[in-house]
Design brief:
Chains A, B: This is 3-dehydroshikimate dehydratase. 2 copies of one chain form a homodimer. Chain A has 666 residues and is of the alpha/beta class. The first copy, chain A, is elongated, with a radius of gyration of 28 Å.
């Protein structure tokens, strides 16, 4: 597939945008008219710049409000179109997007619309360009691709096709079935955007909250698959209006966009394989698009002729390695120096962790409790040390347990995520790693049964003994990260594309000092969960957890337990500074859920919070105080299939942490 | 009037919120339930804290989803209400807000609703509390105050009244006429919020975008006036859910809220005087509210008995001095040191300004051209010097021309804006000033005809001669300020309350590196215009113009001219570095407005931009390059009553400035 992006999706001057597109590896761009108007460069110069960079101007856009019930205005619009066609010649662009009219003079009568679009098509023919008609979701009379397609089909002219845009179709939950009936060669252009589900005016939603495929909530494969199957040979192009993208560096946004296109292609491939009515392997569909598509018929062609096409090198190289679902966290690694190592180790000892092993050659220790592995890394000149120097005590890496580390790494690098290779000493195992979008490090550990683990090969036992009364930890339930502003989307795409983690609903959660945007990711089986949090406000607990160099910071680690009340009481008895929960909370929670007094007394006694979902699943969870006002630990007991994170209790936790901080400052 | 605010409107812990309310001078608060749940303090302690601070808990809120078609659930809801009434006793609160039900089991049948509310009223009576029923705009069946009032009237019980909320009423453009028929003593509580007009889901709008009266677009006086006229004696209370307020310091937000209540009272007073069907001065209406209201009748009482009430001291002191509309800018003052003075003076000389006067005793000069006065202040140890030290070359004060400076200052201080008195030397005039919310300084200058001006008394002529070919400046058309994030609302309230400037529509404008939120203020006659701009993105031209200490920065000064093309050409000829506008812009503007070639050639030649409004009014304007990548000048010619700011051309300007910066960095 050819890959393209609209210049409006990126920040900066036109030069910066074009350079970012070329660097990321796009084949083409949609030139947004305003970017040309604001540029000092003449159209011929822009054309040459694109040629020099090896990208084509695949589409000029938008041409608004073409049709009109006012004959004088329509005549002016035709003249306006003629001028734009001239401009396109100077740019070397041969396709233009014409979107449905939103104004009061928009044509309602079908025949009049067909007549006017027919005049446009003939003008386009004489100018040797192609116009693509697009239904805006908020068009006055034409707001579905189905309306647009009916008009285009009736005009029946080779210089007028349809432009399909996933946002305009999916935002109004439009019927997708008619996509099947649009022949690929009648599709002038395909624009892709994803979006979170928001209850708001569709125009505002479109202008500010679109995002790249894989970052939002739309299912794009059912939209893209029929288009590809019908032989569309043009680029898949990203048209994303997003307030965050408007300010983020174009280089970074462009790269994420390219990743999202690789992901969409991958999903469409899987979708076609699963749904292929023609029983033709998806590879053939992908192969055709760099070949030729000669169909001019009015009915869908299937892909009979597609299999004859030469499979393009790009289609070959773009197919990512298959997905390997992580099965959980292998370990978490903290960057420490000697002072903070003592402090954190003290916390962990109270928690019932034992320093089970130390590294053969490095100042690295492994703390264990049940299935939970935490590594404290004080090694000078290591990744951890550099991280520590920039930030101080925090998480510096998370290791995912996977069945096949090489395949997982391979897949991640197909999506252009950077592999990481740390310095490895003699007789030490190399652990493959990948750098997350925020710059933090994700290790990939495949410790199958019978295989020696990294702890066997690189560590030696300390023979320190675990306390007899260790807490009852069943694993790492979830990891909660604080991300810089606007960084959640990049991370969601990363986790979804590289590891197949599914993003859940986004929450806005109150902190006493602002709002927190939160979105959780989980593996299909729920064994790996990561919660991503960001806050525009500088005094929230999430903002405090950010690293000083601007990357992800650890907000908290939640350990699973089979009995939260017992474990919380036990930890408190062992001297772990648990977070005190206000009495007022318990009075409310008792009334809200109709809990019996004895149970509420137990919760209150152990400072355990409670939540219940609509299916009757229950969450019992408790928090520690913050370690140095930064991160903290949580214990989590899930009962009856409870699948959330107790977000209803987040305000109580945030207020309680704020209260402890306020006391400390007095 | 008593003044109150909901704790949910403020950030921080409950202690911080209560302290902020007391410091600002509120009489009471609405205690938002979640603030109590999240507090470590028992209800009795919260009660004592409020007593110690001299504020009452005027309302406990909210009680949600009371009525139910499910008898078992309704029984539980009654029990839930009984518990809340107990809690209110512990808090010392005797009023509770009960909002209309949003869930699927909400009661539709009027008689059933009246029955259930009747049970609530009798329960409230036995608990010696009063329930106030409020229609949420998104309630399932009850979403207008008119529905709520019908139910309350039919229940006809002294322990059940109505809660009126301006947002729920004005957001749905509800019919206000029935407010007249609600007797004041049947109104349990009145909540006020303003909001910008936004095309979005009303629930989301309400939860994130409410603002204080005077900051949004709602007309509050027609809502408040009938309530007051009918003898409502409780507080006017602010209930504002606003993302910015959630993070801003509670102290600052609380003070702005109090100002907004003073403003609402002032507007309601004016509205009553203008519309008073009872021909009773508004002062009497205001006076009654701290007296007693003994009406228990079911029909409006007018204010016959109101005039008998003792006029409260608060009502007296709260009435602000009358409004004096500024007639323009008297001068703008720049903070400079010796180096930047030379640089800016050089710019001004090219512009055709002459250094007409110098200060008698200070290192301060007056530059003049036509009616425009600019002061360059390099005086050590002055306000300007402190400002300069923190920030460098920028605007440090703006002086408004007013007919009566003392009254204006008096009015501003009634709204709790801080007066400013600078150090004044012997035989120098003292200029009254007021500190704007961002910390910048606004002088008030009343130079009537015949009165000696500050330039006469404090300055001596330099006898430098104006250039023969000065530009044709007709005045300062507008001042454009860059404000920190979330600071526009505070400034709008300031300018509206203190100076009577009217806020216009808010715009979101694109910069190559992000978005800019822009809102203009103008005096009724348009002779004083200030444009306020803010950007969450750090690389926009607005963000670059912010002062380093976090206050307002000068973005640009726009001078009026009677002929923009001639003036722009003239300035370019005099060596002013005008901003080059791309050719592409002119091709588009010619096509868009159907301009003739000769005119477009003139615009292009002089780098003048063009806009036209729907009434045919025209704007011709041109920009200089930025002085030190910070602020710049604009010249503006308004034709045929054009009243805007050419926002359609803002992207072109921002891109052109970015291009100049990029060239400078190469």
């Amino acid at each position: 597939m050819k890959r393209s992006i609209a210049t409006v999706s990126l920040s900066g001057t036109l030069e910066e945008k074009l350079r970012a597109c070329a660097n990321a590896g796009y084949d083409g761009i949609e030139l947004f008219e305003n970017d040309l108007l604001c540029s000092v460069h003449a159209p011929e110069t822009v054309r040459r710049m694109c040629e020099d960079l090896g990208i084509e101007i695949a589409l000029y856009q938008p041409f608004r409000d073409f049709d009109s019930t006012d004959p004088a205005r329509f005549a002016r619009n035709l003249e306006r179109a003629r001028r734009k066609f001239d401009l396109m010649h100077r740019l070397g662009a041969d396709k233009i997007l014409v979107c449905s009219h939103v104004g009061a003079d928009a044509v309602f009568d079908r025949q009049q619309l067909v007549d006017q679009l027919g005049q446009l098509a003939r003008l386009a023919q004489s100018a040797h360009v192609e116009a693509g008609y697009e239904a805006l979701a908020w068009g006055r009379h034409v707001h579905s691709y189905r309306d647009a397609w009916r008009a285009v089909r009736e005009v029946d002219h080779p210089n007028l096709g349809i432009v399909l845009d996933s946002f305009h179709t999916l935002s109004i939950r439009d019927d997708l079935s008619e996509l099947d009936s649009i022949p690929g060669d009648r599709i002038t252009f395909v624009q892709l955007a994803d979006a979170p589900l928001l209850a708001m005016d569709v125009l505002e939603w479109s202008r500010h909250f679109r995002c790249f495929p894989g970052q939002g909530s739309f299912e794009l494969a059912p939209f893209v698959a029929p288009i590809l199957r019908n032989g569309y040979a043009g680029p898949l192009s990203l048209e994303v209006f997003n307030d965050g993208f408007r300010s983020a560096p174009a280089r970074v946004t462009a790269l994420d966009g390219l990743r999202s296109l690789i992901w969409v292609e991958d999903r469409a491939r899987a979708y076609l394989d699963a749904h292929d009515v023609f029983a033709t392997p998806a590879a053939a569909v992908f192969a055709v698009h760099d070949g030729e598509s000669g169909s001019t018929h009015d009915e869908p062609q299937g892909i009979g002729h597609a299999t004859a096409a030469v499979e393009s090198v790009r289609a070959q190289t773009a197919a990512p390695a298959s997905l390997v679902s992580p099965t959980g966290f292998a370990f978490l690694e903290f960057a420490v120096d000697d002072a903070t190592r003592t402090r954190l180790a003290d916390w962990l000892a109270h928690f019932g962790f034992v320093r089970a092993r130390r590294h053969r050659s490095k100042r690295v220790s492994l703390y264990q409790q049940g299935p939970v592995n935490l590594i404290l890394n004080a090694e000078p000149d290591s990744f951890a040390d550099r991280f520590y120097g920039e930030h101080g005590l925090s998480l510096c890496a998370a290791a995912l347990a996977v069945d096949d580390a090489d395949t997982t790494l391979n897949r991640a690098t197909t999506f252009r995520y950077a592999p990481y290779k740390g310095s490895v000493g003699p007789e030490e195992r190399e652990i493959p790693g990948v750098v997350a979008p925020d710059g933090s490090l994700i290790y990939l550990v495949a410790d199958g049964p019978g295989k020696p683990t990294i702890y066997d090969t690189d560590f030696v036992p300390t023979h320190e003994t675990a306390p007899a009364d260790a807490a009852d930890l069943t694993g790492i339930d979830h990891l909660c990260l604080a991300l810089p502003r606007d960084a959640i989307d990049s991370w969601v795409l990363f986790a979804q594309a590289a590891f197949g983690l599914k993003p859940e609903q986004q929450w806005m959660l109150p902190d006493p000092y602002g709002l927190v945007r939160s979105r959780a990711l989980r593996s299909d089986d729920g064994r790996l969960r990561i919660s991503l949090n960001t806050s525009d406000d500088t005094r929230t607990s999430v903002a405090r957890a950010l690293t000083t160099y601007g990357g992800a910071g650890l907000h908290h680690v939640a350990f699973g337990t089979s009995n939260a009340i017992r474990t919380a009481a036990h930890l408190a008895a062992r001297g772990v500074p648990m977070l005190a929960i206000p009495d007022n909370y318990y009075e409310d929670v008792a009334a809200r859920f109709g809990l019996d007094d004895a149970f509420v007394a137990q919760l209150r006694e152990s400072n355990v919070l409670y939540d219940r979902d609509e299916q009757g699943g229950e969450l019992l969870h408790a928090y520690t105080q913050q370690i140095g006002t930064r991160f903290f630990f949580e214990i989590v007991e899930r009962r009856g299939g409870y699948d959330g994170y107790g977000v209803a209790n987040t305000p109580v936790r945030n207020a309680a942490h704020a209260w402890v901080r306020a006391l400390a400052q007095q």
